[in-house]
Write a structure and sequence with these properties.
about 400 residues, 7 strands, 5-stranded mixed β-sheet, Heat Shock Protein 90, about 65% helix, elongated, two-stranded antiparallel ribbon, alpha+beta
Length: about 400
């Protein structure tokens, strides 16, 4: 991931250089400065060639191409423009920068040797004696030492980082295994309690109304506990699961999700309006879980009044480099203070008898959106409804950052 970021930065920097050199060429043409024009043409030729190499994912060759181009420009400056300082600066800086960017040690040594040879050549053209040139003693030699030092330290840091990543990956797998085992072990006795309580309800016809009510409480309690265990497992997965991102058709994905709510939608006579659903970049399973939670909440938290007509609006629009997805309903809503804490785990604003739930759904949603390098916000008014706004990157280098 770090190397990809470095490669992208180099490519972006190269593009910026190309733009600047084009401007420089235009200026040279206006003022008819032939020698500087030739220098700029050499530079832009090498940069454009390196840009093509970057396009073919040959970042190592492209970086070496940029270095060679700068070497050529430096020697041209000495030979025709009598600009020794520019050449010396290039000969000093190229090996140092290369030591931080290039991956192969052989390429770093080649550029260092090239700098040493060109240093001697530059001195010869300039008429300097090598031992009298302070650039050599106070420039190239320290640069060489720094390059070797940085390379050694970088290798150590890389090894330590890789060991730490492997250790963290192992710990994450242990945590997930433990969570799955705990989920299975905790739900097994709950299934027994629920099952035997159901058998008692069916077989014990002589039970009075109060005892039947108590048994029903046991059945409902075990179901709630099972739901809570499942939600806790989903929450732990949202923290540790690694995501693979791809382009998703939001319209098809939403149709698939809404199909699972078909009974609730028909029963509640709920109007679903979709607008502008486009492609979105993300992890299909986890985003499906996000949308399921938000639609489920919009269906669940509606006024229990027969005259009320529930409505859910789902919209999507691109905004610069972000995709903005909104879920708006005309449900019971919340006040501002409640809305601030709704993404915290185990947050509930209604009793179990009013609206079922574990208080974990929106916490899971928040974690998943965070791992997509996105954000989620909420606006709500009592008796007017709630709007959830999700912002996701159009393209991920991202999201993968979080995973």
């Amino acid at each position: 991931m770090e190397s990809k970021t470095i490669h992208r930065s180099i490519e972006l920097l190269n593009r910026m250089f190309i733009v600047l050199i084009v401007i420089d060429i235009i200026v040279c043409l206006i003022f008819e400065d032939q020698l500087h024009l030739y220098s700029s043409l050499i530079l832009i030729s090498g940069l454009v060639m390196s840009q093509f190499l970057f396009r073919w994912d040959c970042y190592e060759c492209g970086t070496i191409g940029i270095a060679v181009t700068f070497y050529c420009v430096g020697m041209f400056q000495v030979a025709f423009l009598d600009s020794h300082s520019t050449c010396y600066f290039i000969l000093l800086i190229v090996p140092l920068v290369a030591s931080l960017i290039l991956n192969r040690m052989l390429n770093k040594i080649i550029l260092l040797c090239a700098s040493c040879i060109l240093f001697i050549r530059c001195n010869h053209i300039a008429g300097f004696h090598l031992l009298e040139n302070y650039f050599f003693f106070y420039g190239l030699i320290p640069t060489t030492i720094m390059m070797l030092f940085f390379y050694n330290e970088l290798e150590k840091a890389t090894i330590q980082k890789n060991l730490l990543i492997e250790e963290l990956r192992g710990k994450n797998e242990e945590i997930m295994l433990y969570s799955n085992m705990m989920s299975h072990d905790l739900k097994a006795p709950l299934r027994n309690i629920e099952g035997f309580s159901g058998i008692l309800l069916r077989n014990c016809k002589q039970l009075d109304e109060r005892n039947r009510e108590l048994l029903n409480f046991i059945v409902k309690g075990t179901k709630s506990m099972k739901n809570l265990i499942d939600d806790l497992l989903d929450y732990s997965r949202s923290n540790f699961e690694q995501y693979t991102f791809k382009q998703l058709d939001l319209n098809k994905l939403m149709d698939k999700i809404l199909l699972s709510f078909n009974y609730e939608i028909e029963k509640g006579n709920i109007s679903i309006n979709k607008k502008g659903l486009d492609m979105v970049y993300g992890h299909e399973e986890s985003l499906s879980l996000v949308f399921q939670n938000l639609i489920s909440n919009s269906i669940k938290y509606q006024p229990k009044v027969s005259a009320h007509l529930p409505q859910i609006d789902i919209s999507c629009e691109a905004n610069d480099d972000r995709m903005i997805i909104k879920f708006r309903d005309n449900g019971i809503g919340l006040d501002d203070e409640e809305a601030k804490s709704m993404f915290l785990p185990f947050t509930r604003f209604h009793s179990e008898s009013e609206y079922e739930g574990t208080g974990m759904g929106l916490s899971i949603v928040s974690k998943i959106i965070e791992k997509h390098s996105g954000s989620i916000s909420v606006e709500s008014q009592i008796n007017k409804g709630t709007t959830f706004t999700i912002s996701l990157p159009l393209y991920q280098d991202a999201h993968q950052i979080q995973s």
